[in-house]
Design goal:
About 35% of the residues lie in helices and about 15% in strands. With about 450 residues, the protein is α/β, with parallel strands linked by helices. Helix 3 crosses helix 10 and helix 11 packs parallel to helix 13.
């Protein structure tokens, strides 16, 4: 049996009567080592509370959906048009070349360990090569690999903003921006998008929100939830506002190049002459693998405004969780280089066709005002609530739609844009047609003619 000897060292003679280390603090010797002796104090009862950051973290979509009473009609199979995941229905698989790249990375046994927190140099160079253009050149050092585009957005906000700052967020817009910002003590200011102008930015409203604490402007293009695509001229107008007020841009371009034929939307960075931009993207949507959690930040530092400090800040932030999955990083170069153009074209053709079916079917329903998208995989539908007096708002409307027709559309209150709902257009065509038919039946049942002439977008 061993006994641990504790010697309380309190000799006043050793160091001028000031304790062992001359600072009035008593120490305990444990096998020759000295540790500060804590004062006699303890909690009288257990009191473990969540942090302020945890308490301030709020996801509007989850809060609204979890509070809805969703009881589908047992006589009709459920059709969920609410989930922004193109893999849900199984009709949009990724390309064989993408799968082969993953298999090769696994078989190589080279990517089972930790990668650098910012990503493998070779993988970062592959991303730089893929997205570089003469107007916005990129090198490997301009790329940071992340665990999905969500982490890229998180890092970008974290490096640009302090508590008490404010960021400008589109309305309607992706709810994650607010979830992240508010949890960090950052104020969110919502700038309006205009449905009557295919969801273009209300530039006057945007500019009116900027003050000395505005640290970031978020631009989502193509858009979730709107499916809108900004043309070159409109992007230049947004950049002009940012340049005038010296506000950097976080460009959420996860739907980059998911643009319908006939539309064109260059990257923001390719149009900027002076505004520094952190462009966030990833594999999730264009390559149809959201669960693989591979994203990136592209640093476009016009005139060296970010300088070394923002880059170093991003590096430090990546070290908190040691970054993206190493296996996916190992496959990244082959995914980018070997995915055939036909895969992208087929995906976009399908999304455009489904969007047109949905838009055309819903346009003829009294009381509904769909807005035709130009990209991404969403369509927003306005509800003339005066024509549906059975319901107080879009949440009740979509809730009852589930109850009667087993069709679930996401109420746009989740995007802080009431009296609209969002439809995801990734489901098979026959299900899209069936869903639209059920929505029509539902609206015909609840529609009431309103004396005021309704405006259609």
């Amino acid at each position: 049996m061993y006994f641990l000897s504790l010697e309380i060292t309190v000799s006043a003679k050793s160091l001028n009567g000031k304790g062992v280390h001359g600072n009035g603090i008593h120490h305990v010797s444990v096998n020759g080592s000295f540790y500060p002796a804590k004062a006699k104090s303890r909690r009288q009862r257990w009191e473990v509370k969540p942090s302020e950051m945890a308490n301030n973290t709020f996801n509007p979509i989850r809060a609204i959906v979890d509070g809805m009473k969703l009881t589908p009609n047992p006589d009709k199979p459920m059709i969920a048009l609410s989930i922004g995941d193109p893999t849900v229905f199984g009709n949009l698989p990724t390309d064989d070349a993408v799968l082969q790249a993953m298999k090769d990375a696994i078989d190589s046994q080279k990517y089972n360990g930790y990668a650098p927190s910012v990503g493998y140099l070779k993988s970062r160079q592959a991303v730089a090569n893929f997205f570089s253009c003469p107007e916005a050149p990129l090198e490997a050092e301009d790329v940071i690999l992340t665990s999905g585009c969500s982490q890229a957005i998180d890092l970008a906000i974290s490096v640009l903003c302090n508590p008490g700052d404010n960021i400008l967020v589109p309305c309607p817009g992706f709810s994650l921006y607010k979830t992240l910002a508010v949890s960090m003590g950052i104020e969110v200011k919502l700038y309006n998008l205009l449905p009557e102008k295919s969801w273009e930015v209300d530039l006057q409203h945007l500019e009116s929100l900027i003050d000395e604490r505005t640290s970031c402007l978020i631009v989502t293009n193509p858009s979730n939830p709107c499916g809108s695509v900004f043309n070159k001229e409109h992007l230049q107008k947004i950049l002009k506002v940012a340049s005038k007020h010296c506000v950097p841009i976080l460009a959420d371009e996860i739907y980059s190049d998911m643009v319908f034929p006939g539309c064109n939307s260059p990257s923001m960075a390719s149009l900027s002459s002076d505004v520094p931009i952190l462009s966030c993207g990833g594999l999730a949507k264009r390559w149809l693998v959201p669960g693989w959690r591979m994203g990136w930040i592209l640093i476009h530092d016009r005139n060296d405004i970010f300088g070394s400090q923002i880059r170093q800040g991003l590096v430090k932030l990546t070290q908190r969780i040691l970054g993206a999955c190493s296996i996916i990083q190992g496959a990244l170069e082959n995914i980018l280089n070997n995915t055939p153009q036909s895969f992208y074209d087929n995906t976009i053709s399908f999304l455009k066709s489904n969007s047109e079916i949905c838009f055309n079917e819903l346009s003829i329903i009294p009381g509904l005002n769909p807005v035709m998208p130009s990209g991404a995989m969403y369509l927003m539908v306005g509800i003339n609530m005066d024509n549906f007096p059975d319901f107080k708002n879009d949440v009740e409307f979509t809730e009852q739609l589930v109850t009667e027709q087993s069709v679930f559309c996401l109420p746009a209150t989740a995007f802080e844009y009431p009296n609209f709902f969002r439809i995801v257009v990734t489901l098979p065509e026959e299900m899209m047609v069936e869903a639209c038919g059920r929505i029509r039946e539902f609206c015909e049942r609840h529609y009431r003619l309103h004396c005021v002439q309704q405006h259609r977008f």
